[in-house]
Request: fold
Amino acid sequence: MNLKVGILTISDKGSRGEREDRSGPALQAMLSGIKAEVAQYKIVPDEKEIISQVLVDWSELGIHLILTTGGTGFSPRDNTPEATLAVLEKSAPGISEAIRFYGLQKTPRAMLSRAVAGIRKQTLIVNLPGSEKGARESLEAIIDVLPHAIETVCGLASECAAGRNEERGTRNEKR
Reply:
């Protein structure tokens, strides 16, 4: 399955052309390793209604994965989690927990992330930090499970437990 991805950068300065987006292109480069095509890319201001509308529009287009970057901290202008929660049909807290856990191995500031993840229609939406380094490290934490997660969301994964059972068999053989 070739994954169709949307990368949405949330940045007031970036949307006005006052700051170069480094996170979006960094994420795009990382996705090439999992047969993913960036079908949508956009920079928007940190306005809840605008963010939510793009997430809805892209999920209606059949984008499999939307990665947002930016707007996940404690600043008064950080609205990405609220905009995302407003459009989700199902939450996927394990993804955000894994990202924060991975980040905590590198910096205690990772606990300050309010990022969320979840599903709308057949689209997985994941909030990532706005810094290039934070976005890259966060995607690194989950990139290996994304193809299976998306296949499951799309109804294409037939045996979710197969990988786990195969691992058990391997471990048992080593004993």
Observations:
- The beta strands are 3-10, 36-44, 65-69, 90-91, 117-120, 123-128.
- The first strand starts at residue 3 and ends at 10.
